[in-house]
Write a structure and sequence with these properties.
The protein has 315 residues and is α+β, with helices and mostly antiparallel strands. It has eleven helices and nine strands. Helix content is 45%, strand content 17%. The strands form two sheets. Strands 3-4-7-6-5-8-9 form a seven-stranded mixed β-sheet, sandwiched between helices. Strands 1-2 form a two-stranded antiparallel sheet.
Length: 315
């Protein structure tokens, strides 16, 4: 235990040892210590070179530890150094200014709009030149969804994906939107429509989740396109609801224990068989089996049937 003081006469710092006895043993390793964890200049060069080669941070860390077995670095030091690299590349430009400069440098097609009576960017949409070419050749089927936690501004990133004739997917375009409202989606979809050189070739099918704002926007901008609900999203919603609603007590009335996990698996198998029925006859039979499997859970059955009626023609 030490105390520090500043001498009024000499204006110098001094230390007094109040208790020179350690109350714990010395640590066998200094891993995690801020000074030991600092990257030296040769390590920084490795991080810079591997970052230019598009190597992932976790692989950069593995590379460092392989070259220096006693290296006490962790993933945070790698991320910090990469952040310094981006800052150095950006120079005096703000993040959005740097983004626009890179979009222009690589000949991206991009659009942006500001808030009313303001210079604050509200929405940005961009597409790679190759993506524009692919979109004009393969615009029949599009898949759209938002992803989160991708940027420091906490803006949802709206992603548009296309499908080729060989069932391969490609990225059409990306957008940062301030809000997931109809007006934001309408603007993004209008910018997407601008990428098409022929207004006769519009998307035939657009697959989205059950976001009502996006559904309304699709109907507004692409009125002749058939909007379908994503199979995966509906499936996951029904599964999560079944976990909440389909629970037996530890013992049923006959005194036997019931495994709720097996019950949910049975219900989901019946749901899958029903929604994947190829004919009306198979659907009718599967519907009866699904209702029978959910007979003890009327709340869930009502939810599932309501969901099915809403998306039956778009599933």
């Amino acid at each position: 235990m030490v105390s520090g003081y500043l001498s009024r006469q000499t204006k110098e710092w001094g230390l007094n040892i109040l208790n020179g006895v350690h109350n714990h043993a010395m640590e066998p390793a200094l891993e995690g210590h801020i000074l030991v964890g600092r990257l030296k200049e040769d390590n920084k060069k490795i991080v810079r070179d591997l970052t230019k080669s598009k190597m992932l941070p976790r692989n950069i860390l593995i590379n460092l530890k392989n070259k220096r077995p006693h290296c006490m670095k962790n993933i945070k030091q790698v991320y910090n150094e990469r952040q310094q690299i981006w800052k150095a590349n950006r120079g005096d430009k703000k993040s959005l200014q740097y983004l626009f400069s890179k979009l222009e440098e690589h000949n991206y097609t991009y659009f942006s709009r500001t808030q009313i009576e303001s210079t604050t960017i509200e929405d940005i949409f961009w597409a790679h030149p190759t993506s524009v070419k692919l979109f004009n050749n393969f615009q029949t089927v599009l898949v759209m969804d938002s992803t989160y936690k991708t940027n420091m501004y906490k803006m949802p990133m709206f992603v548009v994906v296309g499908v080729t004739l060989t069932d391969l997917t490609y990225s059409v375009g990306f957008a940062f939107v301030t809000h997931e409202k109809k007006e934001n989606f309408v603007w993004v979809l209008k910018m997407l429509r601008k990428l098409l050189t022929s207004k006769m070739n519009m998307p035939k099918v657009i697959v989205i989740d059950r976001d009502m704002s996006l559904m309304n926007a699709v109907g507004n901008v692409f009125p002749k396109s058939y909007a379908m609900n994503c199979y995966f999203h509906v499936q996951e919603n029904v599964k999560q609801r079944s976990i909440l609603d389909c629970k037996y007590p530890l013992e049923k009335k006959d005194g036997k224990e019931v495994n709720n996990h097996d019950v949910i698996k049975k219900i989901m198998r019946a749901w899958k068989a029903m929604v994947e029925s190829l004919t009306q006859e198979l659907y009718a039979n599967a519907l009866v089996e699904f209702q029978d499997a959910c007979s003890d859970f009327p709340l869930f059955l009502n939810y599932a049937m309501t969901t099915l009626n809403e998306v039956k023609g778009k599933y």
